């Protein structure tokens, strides 16, 4: 709820800096401590990813869509951290970097679109697509990168 109701700049700071600080802290905690119930945690986190993805698909508010996709990315980070493989720890760092860039850009794009259309709702964005197609093509490329398509670091 915090990224949705906050101003765009605060949402960008949350996605790019504050969540990465928590992710790095979790990385250090997972290195220091051995957690015995990792399989149960991973199954709970996979269920959370599935539910956040379903909530993403049902959203008409663009800011909520970006917030739920951010939750999905950070939950995937937890799955990588609790998998107990050294290469997954390196992959989690790459995932944090890609999430910081992609979510930050998505929040910025939603802010630009909502400023020009005076609404965050998806079905009220049709005039923006006709008046600024380059902006919408850029949004589509960033959404593909958010989904973890091959040129993206989020493919990890």
From TrEMBL:
One of its GO terms (cellular component) is mitochondrial membrane. It is found in: Mitochondrion membrane. It is a multi-pass membrane protein. Pfam families: Proton_antipo_M. Residues 2-152 form the NADH:quinone oxidoreductase/Mrp antiporter transmembrane domain. The keyword Transmembrane helix applies. One of its GO terms (molecular function) is NADH dehydrogenase (ubiquinone) activity. It catalyses: a ubiquinone + NADH + 5 H(+)(in) = a ubiquinol + NAD(+) + 4 H(+)(out). InterPro entries: NADH_UbQ_OxRdtase, ND/Mrp_TM. Its main location: mitochondrion. PANTHER family: NADH-UBIQUINONE OXIDOREDUCTASE CHAIN 4. This is NADH-ubiquinone oxidoreductase chain 4. It comes from Trichuris suis (pig whipworm).
